């Protein structure tokens, strides 16, 4: 699922490095960045949202001065202040405009710029003046990434009378969820009110939690449980399930430090398990 938030994006026009607040540190500048070329300019404008999920296409429009018409333009991306990598190509049209796109990568900040070269000057079939590189200003975007909670260590958990949290695969309603957080037991009955939970520190970095709640297909007939999500201690039910098809759930976790997932059985003397299939969070930094 794509989560796109509208954001005002400052368009930087010019040659060389970005100036003003929000500029990346000097280490983000490409080591082979060409010098500014007076009188020949190229600009870059973000046309998609200011936030993207890693792997999504990010689109731009641009314009250039007359002498760059017909020249190839290259889109470069820097992830987290790292090296510039070419991720797209386009041609500057006769009206001096172009559109170009690249793919968002990593998590956190992506920086983008375009480069083109002026046409070399030839006389009698020989190059007497090489083409000169022209570079746009830098445009920044925020990149979000999905993280599966089964890959993260919980910071706290609760076991009660044989009911305990478990990381791993769960099949519910015939659908396999290989990265699940589930609750219950196969060694003793998952009895009424024997709750268990697992708690994660999101570090205020995340925007959304998603999962599919359900009862494992290997559970005893009659297994019944209610599932809860707590955000910084505020607890709410996200659904009650019995054997059968799972249900998708989604919770806004923007501005949240602590996320707790909990399963509470409603049935007695049942051997089973239920939980949050493929539980994951969408974040702007590692949670």
Quick description:
With 287 residues, the protein is mainly β.
Q: Could you please describe the fold and organization of this structure?
A:
- The chain has 287 residues and is mainly beta.
- The protein has no helices and 21 strands.
- The strands form four sheets. Strands 2, 4, 5, 7, 10, 11, 13, 14, 16, 19 and 21 form an eleven-stranded mixed β-sheet that branches.
- A hairpin with a 2-residue loop joins β8 and β9.
- The N terminus is likely disordered.
What are the segments in which pLDDT stays under 50 over at least 5 consecutive residues?
1-38
How many extended strands? Answer: 21
* Major β-sheet profile: 11 strands, mixed
Shape: rod-shaped
The share of residues in helices is under 10%
SSE sequence, one letter per element: EEEEEEEEEEEEEEEEEEEEE
Structural class: mainly beta
% residues in beta strands: over 45%
CA-based gyration radius: 26 Å
Number of helices: 0
Compute the separation of the termini in Å. Answer: 19 Å
Write the layout of secondary structure elements.
Layout: E1 42-46, E2 51-53, E3 57-64, E4 72-79, E5 85-91, E6 97-103, E7 108-117, E8 121-123, E9 126-129, E10 133-135, E11 139-148, E12 156-158, E13 164-172, E14 175-185, E15 196-201, E16 206-215, E17 224-231, E18 234-242, E19 247-252, E20 258-265, E21 272-283
Parallel strand pairs: 2-11
Antiparallel strand pairs: 1-3, 3-6, 4-5, 4-7, 7-10, 7-11, 8-9, 11-21, 12-15, 13-14, 14-21, 15-20, 16-19, 16-21, 17-18, 17-20
Notable features of this structure?
mainly beta, 287 residues, disordered N terminus, eleven-stranded mixed sheet, 52% strand
């Amino acid at each position: 699922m794509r989560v796109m938030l509208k954001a005002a994006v400052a368009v930087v026009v010019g040659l060389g490095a970005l100036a003003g607040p929000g500029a990346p540190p000097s280490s983000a500048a490409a080591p082979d960045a060409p010098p500014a070329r007076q009188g020949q300019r190229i600009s870059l404008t973000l046309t998609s949202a200011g936030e993207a999920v890693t792997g999504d296409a990010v689109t731009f429009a641009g314009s250039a001065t007359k002498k760059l018409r017909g020249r190839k333009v290259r889109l470069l991306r820097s992830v987290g202040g790292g090296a510039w990598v070419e991720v797209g190509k386009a041609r500057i049209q006769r009206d001096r405009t172009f559109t170009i796109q690249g793919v968002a990568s990593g998590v956190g900040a992506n920086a983008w710029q375009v480069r083109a070269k002026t046409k070399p000057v030839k006389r009698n079939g020989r190059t007497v003046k090489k083409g000169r590189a022209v570079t746009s200003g830098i445009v920044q975007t925020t990149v979000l990434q999905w993280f599966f909670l089964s890959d993260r260590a919980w910071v706290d958990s609760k076991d009660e009378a044989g009911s305990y949290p478990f990381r791993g695969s769960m099949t519910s309603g015939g659908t396999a969820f290989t990265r699940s957080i589930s609750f219950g037991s196969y060694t003793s009955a998952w009895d009424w009110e024997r709750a268990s939970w697992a708690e994660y520190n999101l570090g205020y970095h995340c925007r959304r939690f998603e999962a599919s709640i359900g009862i494992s297909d290997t559970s005893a007939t009659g297994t019944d449980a209610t599932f809860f999500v707590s955000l910084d201690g505020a607890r709410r039910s996200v659904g009650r399930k019995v054997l059968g098809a799972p249900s998708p759930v989604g919770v806004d976790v923007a501005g949240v430090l602590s996320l707790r997932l909990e399963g509470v059985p409603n049935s007695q003397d049942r051997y089973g398990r239920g939980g949050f299939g493929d539980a994951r969070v969408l974040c702007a930094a590692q949670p």
